[in-house]
Write a sequence for this structure.
């Protein structure tokens, strides 16, 4: 801590933090660190069982089940939602309410489209004979991607909550930070999908 | 004492609407009240865990005993371990941290007061859910480590394991939320001048523990979720007959489980790093070494989990790595021990009860540490594993270490928290009785373990040669119970009739002693300024820095001590802004608990359970709505515009 910050008048205390980072932002960053271990464990489990799956009599080949085309579309949807999220934040910082609402709802829409795609995929795989109990691949695949989908759903609810809160209190100076931390989480969930897409679908 | 005088003299307290009676506790967002809620509920769970231990000791007191059935015995050791770790030691540490950390860093509250309330409620409800299992078919009976595939439905058909999963899950969420709160509070809410390297060591250790927590707990969460899916939804993660992997459970569990050991012990190392200097009337020796060896322990703690699995047969390479890494932990731990000893060296020791516990911590912890070093060696470990030698080891570090450290903290800070002194005479009776009976209980376990007595057996035959050791342990454990009763009596009488505690009864060095006992709701009327590691000694003994100048040389070089002894008059009065009381965290926790009940029965009673989950989610949603509303009203910007 520098000398100057020690003598800063206390009127600024409400905004002042020791590190100069907003409390909630720091909290979300730490939370993302924790979530990283959550998904790392699920992905590790998937890879521990991938070779075992191949040696089992009830082996189910991921290549036969996973539809790269559909998932590529889903991945693009989620990546696009990260772009609209950035645009929503930028509009919120400018104070541009109309574009903020547009981009945020676009993000929500893309998130819902992703969830819809995943529901379609799960349903399709189920009818092809891939279930939680059909093989080790089914066990690990559904639990990993299912928990990612749950995170997307929570993200959608979070974004909607931010949308309605900003609508209820349009003049609150907290709005930009509300959007920013929801966005941090959203980008993280996207990034996890990139990892899953590469590690589970492509390789 | 200037800080305290300013506190008393210059401002009128802010108007805070604290609801009276129980409503005040149910809706509180004050870190001090939440700290007390943690301490009281954790102590209740701790006593229950102690009773479970006593029942086991009574069963083992004589050979071929029939006091407990084998199944009840299994439930007892499972619940004893789970309770002591998740519902006793952890929340006792969190409670002390919750109360003291904001005071020690000169803050008015935790960074997220409502999240703080959510943490304590989730912990309490998680604990209660675990205990509900006794009434719905039987408690979990698979050990606190819940090794696969013993936990699968065909071997553990009651819902005890499910309650274990959900109960641990709720306390896990509580712990992660609490850890995030500690991280942000400690990194971001320090008073001006309180740099990281001036933080009290208790705060340092809480910060390290918070980081360990957020990285270790998600791994346990995933493992328990996978187990839940195995039990109810047809997966086969830990079912070896279908290609699952029982050893994977051990890896995941101990990747969490070993850092958990440091989650339990590091805060108490922080406590005695406060208590020893205060009652030696000397600054801590080698502050930076004590702080950063804590960081080293936290880091190494993630690299040693497989020393719990030497008997699995992971191969010589893995065993060698994990054995060597485990030995390495002895280095930073030894650094701390020598620093504590050097702190006392040539100090003027005041042997208060808190100090006795702190000194005894060092002794008992060293014994546990040495048996730990023997266990870190794979060949010795294979000989000792699953024997009473391990039980002796872990109780020397977690009882002789953690529990005695927590008692040091309770005797040290009780006056601050309640405004009353604990009775020192009773405290010393308790201390000596506890020290003797602790050793009587656990030292013979080294010997019975060496003579081959396995853990987790409900009885043994008379000709095994273990009779004397077991009888000693049982007598010791009954005396330990007396020591706890003395403590309970001490607390209950002192809280009403104990001598009134002054603001600074021990001549402390850290900021919590600058405010009245108990502190005002807002902690500090004026945010304190910090110029060294011992802000209060600076105030009380202006010439101390000259005596101890060499310790503070780096600080002096930066010129921060230049005007260190001028009494400051506060500039513009700052508006004191405190979070409003709210029921929102309680409501959200109730919703999550109902959701948890639904999840337990989703596999067996689909429709009813799903409706329960829906109800839980709706209650959660209602709670979150009210949470968002109150947080908007409470936001500093909003308050500035004058409500």
């Amino acid at each position: 801590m520098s000398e100057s910050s020690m003598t800063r008048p206390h009127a600024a205390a409400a905004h002042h933090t020791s590190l100069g980072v907003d409390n909630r932002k720091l909290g979300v960053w730490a939370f993302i660190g924790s979530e990283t271990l959550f998904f790392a464990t699920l992905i590790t489990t998937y890879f521990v069982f991938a070779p075992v799956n191949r040696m089992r009599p009830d082996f189910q080949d991921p290549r036969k089940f996973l539809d790269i085309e559909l998932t590529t579309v889903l991945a693009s949807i989620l990546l696009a939602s990260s772009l609209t999220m950035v645009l929503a934040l930028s509009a919120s910082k400018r104070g541009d309410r109309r574009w903020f609402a547009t981009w945020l709802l676009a993000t929500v829409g893309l998130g819902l489209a992703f969830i819809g795609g995943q529901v379609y995929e799960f349903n399709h795989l189920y009818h092809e004979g891939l279930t939680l109990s059909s093989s080790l691949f089914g066990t690990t695949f559904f639990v990993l991607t299912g928990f990612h989908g749950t995170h997307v759903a929570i993200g959608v609810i979070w974004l909607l909550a931010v949308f309605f809160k900003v609508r209820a209190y349009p003049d609150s100076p907290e709005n930009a930070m509300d959007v920013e931390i929801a966005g941090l989480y959203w980008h993280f969930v996207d990034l996890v999908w990139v990892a899953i897409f590469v590690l589970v679908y492509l390789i | 004492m200037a800080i305290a005088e300013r506190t008393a003299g210059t401002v009128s307290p802010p108007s805070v609407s604290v609801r009276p009676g129980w409503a005040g506790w149910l809706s509180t967002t004050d870190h001090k009240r939440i700290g007390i809620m943690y301490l009281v509920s954790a102590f209740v769970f701790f006593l229950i865990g102690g009773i479970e231990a006593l029942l086991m000791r009574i069963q083992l007191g004589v050979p071929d005993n029939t006091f407990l059935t084998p199944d009840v015995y299994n439930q007892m050791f499972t619940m004893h371990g789970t309770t002591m770790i998740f519902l006793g030691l952890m929340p006792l540490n969190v409670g002390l941290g919750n109360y003291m950390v904001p005071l020690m860093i000169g803050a008015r509250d935790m960074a997220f007061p409502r999240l703080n309330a959510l943490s304590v409620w989730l912990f309490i409800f998680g604990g209660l859910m675990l205990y509900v299992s006794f009434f719905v078919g039987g408690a979990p009976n698979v050990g606190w480590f819940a090794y696969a595939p013993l936990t699968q439905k065909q071997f553990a058909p009651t819902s005890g394991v499910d309650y274990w999963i959900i109960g641990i899950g709720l306390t896990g969420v509580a712990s992660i939320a609490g850890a995030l709160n500690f991280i942000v509070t400690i990194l971001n809410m320090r008073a001006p001048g309180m740099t990281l390297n001036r933080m009290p060591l208790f705060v340092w250790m809480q910060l390290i523990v918070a980081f360990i927590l957020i990285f270790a707990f998600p791994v346990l969460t995933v493992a328990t979720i996978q187990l839940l899916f195995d039990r109810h939804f047809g997966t086969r993660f830990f079912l070896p007959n279908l290609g699952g992997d029982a050893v994977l459970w051990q890896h995941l569990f101990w990747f969490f489980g070993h850092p958990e050991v440091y989650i339990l012990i590091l805060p108490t190392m922080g406590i005695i790093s406060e208590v020893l200097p205060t009652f030696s009337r000397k600054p801590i020796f080698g502050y930076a070494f004590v702080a950063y060896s804590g960081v080293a322990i936290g880091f190494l703690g993630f690299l040693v989990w497989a020393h719990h699995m030497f008997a699995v047969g992971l191969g010589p390479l893995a065993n060698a790595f994990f054995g060597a890494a485990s030995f390495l932990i002895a280095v930073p731990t030894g650094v701390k021990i020598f620093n504590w000893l050097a702190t006392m060296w040539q100090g003027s020791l005041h042997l208060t009860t808190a100090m006795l516990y702190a000194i005894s911590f060092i002794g008992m912890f060293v014994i546990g540490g040495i048996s730990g070093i023997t266990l870190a060696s794979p060949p010795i470990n294979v000989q000792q594993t699953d024997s009473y030698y391990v039980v002796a080891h872990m109780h020397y570090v977690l009882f002789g270490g953690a529990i005695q450290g927590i008692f040091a903290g309770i005797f040290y800070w009780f006056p601050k928290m309640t405004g009353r002194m604990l009775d020192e005479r009773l405290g010393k009776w308790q201390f000596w009785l506890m020290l003797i009976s602790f050793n009587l209980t656990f030292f013979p376990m080294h010997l019975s373990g060496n003579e081959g007595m396995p853990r987790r057996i409900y009885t043994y035959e008379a000709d095994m040669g273990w009779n004397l050791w077991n009888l000693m342990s049982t007598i010791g454990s009954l005396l330990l119970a007396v020591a706890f009763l003395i403590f309970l009596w001490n607390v209950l009488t002192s809280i009403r009739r104990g001598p009134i505690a002054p603001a600074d009864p021990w001549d402390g060095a850290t900021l919590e002693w600058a405010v009245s006992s108990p502190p005002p709701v807002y902690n500090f009327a004026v945010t304190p300024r910090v110029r060294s590691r011992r802000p209060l000694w600076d105030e009380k003994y202006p010439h101390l820095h000259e005596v101890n100048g060499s310790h503070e040389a780096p600080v002096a070089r930066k010129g921060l001590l230049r005007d260190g002894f001028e009494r400051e008059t506060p500039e513009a009065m700052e508006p004191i802004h405190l979070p409003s009381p709210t029921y929102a965290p309680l409501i959200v926790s109730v919703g999550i608990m109902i959701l948890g009940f639904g999840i337990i029965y989703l596999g067996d009673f689909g429709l009813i359970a799903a409706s329960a989950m829906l109800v839980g989610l709706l209650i959660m949603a209602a709670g979150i709505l009210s949470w968002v509303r109150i947080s908007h009203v409470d936001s500093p910007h909003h308050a500035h515009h004058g409500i």
The domain at 2-6+31-555 of chain B is CATH 1.20.210.10 (Cytochrome C Oxidase; Chain A).
